[in-house]
Amino acid sequence: MSEHHLQLCFLFFLSFSQILLSSCFSFSNSTKICPHGQSLALLHLKKSFSIKKSHSRFCRFPSYPKTEHWKEGSDCCSWDGVSCDLVTGHVIELDLSCSWLSGTIHSNSTLFRFPHLQRLNLAFNHFYGSSVSAGFGRFSSLTYLNLSDSGFSGLISPKISHLSNLVSLDLSWNDEAEFSPLGFDSLVQNLTKLQKLRLRGISISSVFPNSLLNRSSLISLDLTDCGLYGRFPDKEIHLPKLELLSLRGNDELSGNFPRFSENNSLIDLRLSFTNFNGELPASIGNLKFLQILDLFDCQFSGSIPSSISNLKSLQILFLFDCQFLGSIPASLENLTQITSLILFGNHFSGKIPNVFYNLRNLISLDLSGNNFSGQIPPSIGNLTNLYELDFSDNQLEGAIPSSVYGFSSLSYVRLQDNLFNGTIPSWLYTLPSLVELDLSHNKFTGHIGEFQFYSLEKIDLSMNELHGSIPTSIFEFVNLSSLYLSSNNLSGVLETSKFEKLINLTDLDLSNNMLSLTMSVHSNSMLPNIQTLDLSHNNISGMFSWNVGKDTLGRLNLSYNSISGFEMQPWKSMQILDLHSNLLQGKLPTPTNSTYFFSVSHNKLSGEISPLICKASSMGILDLSHNNLGGMLPHCLGNFSNDLSVLNLRRNQFQGIIPQTFLKGNSFRTLDFNSNQLEGLVPQSLIICKELEVLNLGNNKINDTFPHWLGALPKLQVLVLRSNHFHGQIGFSKIKSPFMSLRIIDLAHNDFEGDLPEMYLRSLKAAMNIDEGNMTRKYMGDDNYQDSMMVTIKGSEIEFVKILNTFTTIDFSSNKFQGVIPECIGNLNSLRGLNLSHNYLTGCIPLSFKNLKMLESLDLSSNKLSGRIPQELTSLTFLEVLNLSQNHLIGSIPQGSQFQTFGNDSYYGNPGLCGFPLSNRCTTDELPYPSQEIEAKFESGFDWKITLMGYGCGLVIGLSLGCLIFLSGKPEWLVWIIDKNIHKKIVRNKRSTRGRGARIT
């Protein structure tokens, strides 16, 4: 080639290169050109929001303010979160997720000025007050929309269903957003290209749309907490690409376990907190790619199918709080990839199978709350990656395996509420990562060993049979927050200085042991974070002056010790202070103003109550009973706290009158002034105590008439006025239905007179027709305080430490009541005790008493009752105590049932009585009469039963006898014949019963 040609070629190359470079440069510049209008729209959008980091605190990725560096004059295509088309420069993607944004997106927002947008992500911001408006429906090219967890609310515009190109839609965790009634159906019908649909927390309130199960393109479907209801389609699901299906949290959605075809790709299935039920089908084995199976809190039942072993990829198996039963299949040993096996809260039973040899990836194993028995299987020792082990609340027994090694990651061991015995194995003391150890409520014995590592935060060894001293290593646990060693046989002397390092301890319970305590000189700075301290039921004596938890201590229980002195500390957070059953002497300690529960009962305190106690304006329960306190009661006791529900001053030496002023709207539930020297009248201001259930004024010097106005208190259940100076007739009440809730009334040892108060007795609805089989038996009171009272039975006072809500009793004894016993008492068929003794009552024992089927104690002694003891009383099969002594009763004592168990003292002082158990034998005239019901039929004259005797004796003779009876009333000879036959039958039954040695109690 000539030189000329070479030059031409070189010139051509240079020209072409220049054109090529120019073209490339021009193309490159075009990719960075952002249309001016879009830059202005983005800058305006930026100004509409404020920036605050906390608005993206739930972001799962690193968050930062992406709009912070958006500057006017720069190319918007280069801005963080903005992507443009390479050719046109149009904004096609906007990702402002986790950008700390806060503000409202209005319908005219510049956000909606990007018609070419294909992807929009505004997740994890705070657009409070914004709705998913119609503007979002303008993005016709949009394929990806994520508005999750950004505070959207209100109705979701139906225009969103116009986004026909959407492949992924995520509106999750906008809890106040909802679809219109047909909005969700419209979305499902129109968005035919959807592959991922996540609406977690959005209110749909619809049945599950069948059409969703026809979308073969679906990869992910999350409808968690959407308010779905009705029944899930019971048909085989053919969604070959579906990897995630979550319907959890739709508690009104029911159905059987979904049936998937063998051609499935399901990885994650979540049905927890729904009403799905039935048994797990064998076809569950078709889910060969499944990694997560979450069936928490469903209604599934039956046993686990053995085909579950086909789920070789399964990592998480949640089957807890369902109705599963039977044994765990041995095929679980094939789930070698499993990391979490959670089966608690079911009805599984039998032994735990020895299937853990190959489950070396297991991190969490929870079989608690079932009925497993037997011992822990030895293969548990192979789970060297275990982080959490929970076998609590079963019936496991025996010793914990001792040859266990390599649990370097085990942090939580919960074996409480079982029947384990033996000593605590040594390997539990050597776990380097142990955070929580709970072995409570078992039968472990021996000493508590020394721990080798100090990572523990919670130790609970309570309710066992451990003995010896508390190991010194426990006092080295700087991270320890909870220590429970109660109800063992631990002993020794604890010096308060030992607790110096436990600076994070919040809960300490050493109650029900045999520990004693000595106060160190420098113990005032101990346990700076303690909240609950329980040292009750120990051997602590002397002065208690441990100033712990100055700013934090809320509960202190020192009851049942021998503490003689107590130094009240300036606790700022004290709520419950229990010092009862000690040897406290001297003046009454004044509780701090924050105290809610204060009990110093059963001590030896003396002096008066200081008015300073009324500064405790949060007081709810104040129990000063069983001391030697005296003087006048402060007037403020009735009105210093709106929260005060229990005021117990029983068994002291208080004088003067009961406080006269009670706050309107007060919370008083129990007022107990029993066994003092109070006098005056019952304060009528008690009428505003609408919550009052127990009023105990017994054993004082109150001089008043019956406080009939108390009948208006709607919740009053216990009224005790015994042993005072009440007087006069009880009379009638102007209240239509007084004392509707009253079931325990004690007016004994007063000077009441006149007839028994029939009107009040008719109104005691709470003592009638108690259906104990269908009501919850509980004790009066609450978790903090339960009421008690004294009940007199056969002259002896018995203390009921707790009062059952089914217990009913009436005691009108030792007054001056007269007249007959009202028949209406027989309507009180739930009555347990009735004492009308030591009055002037006359007449017969009412036949209606046969209706008192629940009666356990009946005392009618020392009255003027006459007539026979009704034979029908033998039907009272619960009767344990009977006292009819010192009356004018006559005739034969009824035989049979409980009457066989009563002795002479039940009947003495009735010279007209005869028969067992008295030595006075009955004559012919005193033999048992027929029941009053039979006798009443004779008294009525003609009886068709007599006429029917004609079937045996002939019609004529029968009619003749009937006429004879009709004319002559009640012939003695015929009654004598009938009585004689009845007597023979009773004697035969009595001999037969004695022969068998029967005793009905």
Provide key terms for this protein.
1001 residues, alpha/beta, 33-stranded mixed β-sheet, 9 helices, 69 strands, disordered C terminus
Counted by DSSP, the helix tally is: 9
Beta content: 15-25%
Helix content: 10-25%
- Structural class given helices, strands, pairing? alpha/beta
Question: What is this structure's SSE topology?
Answer:
Elements: H1 3-31, H2 36-47, E1 50-51, E2 82-84, E3 91-95, E4 101-102, E5 119-121, E6 144-146, E7 153-155, E8 168-170, E9 176-178, H3 183-190, E10 196-198, E11 220-222, E12 229-231, E13 236-237, E14 244-246, E15 252-255, E16 259-260, E17 268-270, E18 275-279, E19 292-294, E20 299-302, E21 316-318, E22 323-326, E23 340-342, E24 347-351, E25 364-366, E26 371-374, E27 388-390, E28 395-398, E29 412-414, E30 419-422, E31 436-438, E32 443-446, E33 458-460, E34 465-468, E35 482-484, E36 489-495, E37 507-509, E38 514-518, E39 532-534, E40 541-544, E41 555-557, E42 562-566, E43 576-578, E44 585-586, E45 597-599, E46 604-607, E47 621-623, E48 628-632, E49 646-648, E50 653-657, E51 670-672, E52 677-680, E53 694-696, E54 701-702, E55 718-720, E56 727-729, E57 744-746, E58 751-755, H4 758-763, E59 789-793, E60 796-800, E61 809-811, E62 816-820, E63 833-835, E64 840-843, E65 857-859, E66 864-867, E67 881-883, E68 888-892, E69 912-914, H5 932-939, H6 944-947, H7 950-953, H8 955-968, H9 972-996
Parallel strand pairs: 3-5, 5-6, 6-8, 7-9, 8-10, 10-11, 11-14, 12-15, 13-16, 14-17, 15-18, 17-19, 18-20, 19-21, 20-22, 21-23, 22-24, 23-25, 24-26, 25-27, 26-28, 27-29, 28-30, 29-31, 30-32, 31-33, 32-34, 33-35, 34-36, 35-37, 36-38, 37-39, 39-41, 40-42, 41-43, 43-45, 44-46, 45-47, 46-48, 47-49, ...
Antiparallel strand pairs: 1-4, 2-3, 59-60
